[in-house]
Task: structure prediction
Amino acid sequence: MIAQSEQEKRILSLIHPIAEDQGMEIVRVRIMGGRQPLLQIMAEKEGGAPTDVEHCKRLSKAMSIVFDEVDPITERYTLEVSTPGIDRPLTRPGDFERWKGQAAKLELIRPLEGRRKFQGVLSGEKDGKVILQLDDETELEAEIGELAKASLILTDQLIEATRTAGTLPPQDDDLEGFEIDEQTSLTDEDDLQET
Result:
């Protein structure tokens, strides 16, 4: 799920060694349409270590050199390199176990009993399957390869877990007093660069 289209997979193969050289891991690669496409690359330090804007800038500059030579998108596009944020996408084996106990939403490629979207609490990962405790107290087991997308849901519990792990992005003010919308997914746009 890191990359879905063939073009995204080609881009991932180009940037994976660059990220690895910088001690970074690619979380997601997406090309989003429009008159001028957006190439969005989410990355973090290996093992989920704290990642900041400077890490993203260095990665963006290194990737831009390769993109100028290879030109993976023929038309003019915008490159965005960012961290995955708190309510991050879950794209790799290991992500579901790492975030066990947190609220998540999953979308299947094909419907299961007429339904593609599910929400609940992650129970972990076993033998290539994600296990999600649903709100109705049933359990969903799905192959990671059967997922169209998956992400954490921003909750007070997730903010506290991130703060405790030391991976909460720097904040100007304390998060106290902010309302958490259980249904909305926020994005983190740390660095925009036109190519």
